[in-house]
């Protein structure tokens, strides 16, 4: 049974024992054995490992992992240091600059968000290389439903940012009387101009957190060169 290494183990550990997850695990075993699958199997739950349940302030829900070589590492929209910034993330950065100022950083590593309480969760946690949505409808959606439902039950209000049609399906599981739930088009170049640009989600999220007497998210990702100098 997978071990995440923090309070998520207790919160969603029961999902790993359910029949749907057993079937999903069998599917994944075959896929990893016979195809290139992203992310690395040891990185599938990186988002949960990086942001414990009790620390979540914002949930960003994407679609499924990047399907290009070396991109996905278990946190939606993020790529590790040294990997070129994907177009979807460039568009996210552009929206942040439009809303809050700042600059587009030289890297796509979003761990600084995760460390502040931003859960970088995809609706589906794995994908076959080069084939977007290839692992949809295999069980991951039920698993991530359970994550959203567990977060929704928490007494502390939080922010849900749901981007893209697949992510927006999760909105029905969020109590909008308690939490802030914002939806928009996916930041992909194919859809960003259909409602992602101008969504104002980053500013609205911080305003809500401040209303809840919580520290806002520092959305500006530092340049790696600046980090190296420090």
Structural class by SSE content = alpha/beta
Overall mean pLDDT stands at 95
Unreliable runs: none
Radius of gyration (CA) equals 17 Å
What is the straight-line distance between the termini?
A: 40 Å
Helix tally equals 9
**Total number of β-strand segments?**
6
Strand content of the residues, in percent? 5-15%
Shape: globular
Q: Which strands sit side by side, in order, in the main sheet? A: 3-2-5-6
Helix proportion range = 25-40%
Task: Describe what this molecule looks like in 3D.
35% of the residues lie in helices and 10% in strands. The protein is α/β, with parallel strands linked by helices. The chain starts with 7 loop residues before the first helix and ends with a helix. The model has no long low-confidence stretch (mean pLDDT 95).
Chain-wise SSE layout:
Layout: H1 8-12, H2 19-34, E1 37-38, H3 46-50, E2 58-62, H4 87-100, H5 111-115, E3 118-122, E4 127-128, H6 140-153, E5 159-163, H7 165-168, E6 180-184, H8 201-211, H9 224-229
Parallel strand pairs: 2-3, 2-5, 5-6
Antiparallel strand pairs: 1-4
Short description:
The protein has 230 residues and is of the alpha/beta class. The strands form two sheets. The protein has a four-stranded parallel β-sheet with strand order 3-2-5-6.
Note the main attributes of this structure.
alpha/beta; 4-stranded parallel beta sheet; two-stranded antiparallel ribbon; globular
């Amino acid at each position: 049974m997978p071990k995440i290494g923090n309070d998520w183990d207790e919160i969603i550990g029961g999902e790993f024992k359910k029949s749907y997850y057993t079937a999903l695990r069998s599917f994944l075993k075959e896929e990893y054995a016979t195809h290139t699958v992203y992310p690395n199997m040891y990185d599938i739950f990186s988002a949960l490992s990086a942001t414990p349940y009790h620390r979540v302030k914002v949930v960003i829900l994407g679609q499924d992992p990047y399907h290009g070589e070396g991109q996905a590492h278990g946190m939606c929209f993020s790529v590790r240091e040294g990997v070129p910034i994907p177009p979807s993330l460039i568009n996210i950065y552009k929206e942040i600059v439009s809303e809050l100022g700042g600059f587009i950083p030289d890297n796509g590593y979003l761990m600084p968000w995760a460390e502040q309480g931003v859960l970088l969760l995809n609706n589906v946690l794995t994908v076959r290389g080069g084939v977007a949505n290839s692992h949809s409808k295999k069980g991951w959606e039920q698993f991530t439903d359970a994550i959203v439902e567990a977060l929704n039950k928490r007494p502390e209000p939080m922010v849900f940012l749901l981007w893209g049609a697949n992510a927006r399906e999760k909105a029905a599981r969020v109590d909008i009387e308690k939490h802030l739930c914002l939806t928009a088009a996916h930041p992909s170049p194919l859809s960003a101009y259909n409602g992602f640009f101008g969504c104002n989600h980053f500013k609205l999220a911080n305003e809500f957190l401040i209303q809840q007497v919580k520290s806002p998210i520092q959305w500006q990702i530092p340049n790696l060169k600046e980090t190296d100098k420090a």
